[in-house]
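=== RUN LOG ===
request id: a7f3
mode: sequence -> structure
chains: 1
length: 335
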Amino acid sequence: MRVAAVRPEADRFFAIEDRPEIQPGPGEVRLRMRAASLNYRDLMVAQNRYGATTPGVVPLSDGVGEVIELGAGVTRVAIGDRVSPNFFRDWIEGEPDGAKLASAFGGDIDGVLREELVVPETALVQVPKHLSDEEAASLSCAGLTAWVALFEHGKLMPGETVLIQGTGGVSVFALQFAKLAGARAIVLSSSKDKLERARKLGADHLIDRGATPDWEKEVLKLTGYRGVDHVVEVGGAGTLGRSLQAARIGGHVAVIGVLTGVTGDVPTGAILRKLLRVHGVYVGSRSQYERMNRAIEAAKLRPVVDATYRFDQANDALRALEAAQHFGKIVIKIA
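=== RESULT ===
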C-alpha cells in the first residue's frame, strides 16, 4: 500500500512510500481513498511549523474514500459507501477536550494521503451524494471550520453581514454559507481576479486590500458605520486588530487562521468597549460535520475546487498551496 509521508528535503515535502496493509479490527473500517484536499495546516506540518511534527507522519486531514472492508460489529456504514473521516477522529459530539483534540488526522495521527485507510466507524461521515470525490474531499476541515464559525458559534441569521478575509478554502466556504443563509458578504482580497470570482459567487461588496490597506475603515463605511455582525478572521495576529475595529458593537469575530503569524498585540480595549464575542475555531465534531452535510445536500451546494493533482504530484500540489494563487481548494486525486 502506498502512502505519502512527511520527509522534507530540498526539493520536496513528501515521499511516496510502501507500507504494510493494516487489517480492520472490531469496530473498524477499511477505506480505499479516492481524493484528499490541502489546507494551510498541511503546509505548516510539512515545514515543521505545526507543533512537533512526527517524522514520517502521513499528512492531510481532508479526504473521501469508499468502504471496502468491515471489521466485526460495524453497523454505521456498509461496503461501497462513500465516506469522509472527521478531522478529529475521536471528537464525536459535545464539548472538546484534550483527548479529542489529540486525535487530528495528518498531524497528531497519520492522515489521509494514502491509498487505503483503516479508521474506527465512529469517525466516519456519509458525504453528500451530489458531490464528486474531489468536491467531497474538501469538506472535513475547511468546510466544517467555516460552518462552525458562522452557524454553530456565530448563529448567523438572514440579513446579517459577514466580513470574509481572502479566498482560500475556509473563506470561499464562508462566502457560500453566508449566501446560503441570506446574509450579506464583504470579501477582502489583494487580487482583482479573485475578487471577481468572489463576486460571481454572490459577494455583495469587494475590497481590494492592496489598494485599501486601512480596509476596516471601508468596511465601516459600507455598513453605515455600524460594523459587521461576523468576521471570518483567517489572517491571525497581523489582521486581528483591524477585524475588531470592523465588527459592530456586540459582534462576533471567529479567529481561524494564522497566515500572518501566531503572536502579536491584541487590542483588548476594542473587545471590551464593543462587547465583542471573539471565538477561536478549531474545526469541529462529527455531529457538527453531519449537520453541515445535511445543509449542503439540501441546498445542492458545490464546493469550489481550483486545481486537481495526481497522487504522485503531491509535492507540486503543496507548492501550489504555498504560492497562494488558488481560489477555493486544491485537491489530490488518489484512486
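=== NOTES ===
The two ends are 12 Å apart (CA to CA).
The mean pLDDT is 94.
=== END ===
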